[in-house]
Amino acid sequence: MPLIEVHLIEKVFNPEQKRQIIQKLTDAMVSIEGENMRGVTWVKISEVTSGEWGIGGKPLTTEAVKELAAGRHAA
Predict the structure, then answer these.
(1) Position 24 in a domain
(2) Which of the four pLDDT bands, split at 50, 70 and 90, describes residue 47?
(3) Is the dihedral of CA 42, 43, 45, 46 positive or negative?
(4) Is the predicted pLDDT of residue 75 greater than 60, yes or no?
């Protein structure tokens, strides 16, 4: 049975957005594997503490991700 793991920086997505992530990733898998697999397709969201995820040798924070999402360059 498929397990989709999603890692996010904490406090970037609200509960409704996480619900949508789960729903849409499940729908994507079911479109490939068939509707009979919906009930056994798992999506697991894990949140990483702000600043404990690094990209390009620099820690990434919740605030930086929100700046990127808003179309602003994060420092």
Answers:
(1) yes
(2) very high
(3) positive
(4) no
Distance, CA of 7 to CA of 10 (rounded, Å): 9
Task: State which residues form the domain around 46.
Answer: 3-69
Whether 65 is covered by a domain: the verdict is yes
Amino acid at 66: K
Q: Are 75 and 64 in contact (CB under 8 A)?
A: yes
pLDDT score at 73: 76
Query: Cα–Cα distance between 68 and 74 in angstroms, integer?
Result: 6
State which H helix or E strand residue 60 sits in. Answer: strand 58-60
Yes or no: say if 23 and 17 are a contact pair by the CB < 8 Å rule. Answer: no
